[in-house]
Amino acid sequence: MHAFEYHRPASTKDALSLGKKDEARYLAGGQSLVQAMKLRLSSPTDLIDLGSLNELSFVNASGSGVEIGAMTRHADVAGSKDVQKAIPALAALAGIIGDRQVRHMGTLGGSLANSDPAADYPAAVLGLGATVTTNKRKIEADKFFKGLYETALEPGELITSVAFPAPQRAAYMKFKNPASRFAIVGVFVADFGGGKVRVAVTGAGACAFRQADMEKALAAKFAPESVANIKAKPDGLNNDLHASPEYRAHLITVMAKRAVEAALK
Hints:
The chain is an alpha+beta fold. It has helices spanning about 10-20, 35-40, 75-80, 80-85, 90-95, 100-105, 110-115, 120-125, 210-220, 225-230, 245-265, and strands at about 5, 25, 45-50, 60, 65-70, 130-135, 140, 145, 150, 160-165, 170-175, 185-195, 195-200, 210. The protein starts with a strand and ends with a helix.
């Protein structure tokens, strides 16, 4: 690990001021960043710990959905009665991220800013059509994820909250790595009624993406058989020791079918 200056700002304003430093990085849980620093894959000159910013840790429910602060821990999202009532699938997703340590340290904002290709939260953000709010602007889910560990965030820009609209029904299913519990493939399905359906996939590509063919089929009939015969193309999908592109393409169909089945229960 390379040397760095450690900062623990007392306010969001202070954090943003420190974020203007060259090669500064925000620490929002550290479940990915600290490991990357140990391997010298990331070498920030300044590490800005957001752990004391309580104003960024909250869950606000409304008639249309929930807004969750960027520094809200996964465990707090999973255990929130408001999230469980408004969007049960989102609470369930948060409850199966990593292990207990990860869920009690990792945060919503940290996960999204990192945009790990196998992370769970990106599937929920994209599948629910959430809006990411930063200190500068609001970013639609469809415009947020750009590529491998790449998002629409600008240098020094800080996620402050995410607004999730509540669907009529939704579910998330993933085929997980047995060691890390990351998604080899995960699929989030959300039905908003009126023929509006969103299907988001994580783990399969460089970043989370939507599956248009499945959305169209489910908009016509929200049932498992509607996606059972839709074959995802393996072109461009991840290829590693855990799964080939062809196997990941197969898993997209399997997980989508299971997610629809779960949403109908």
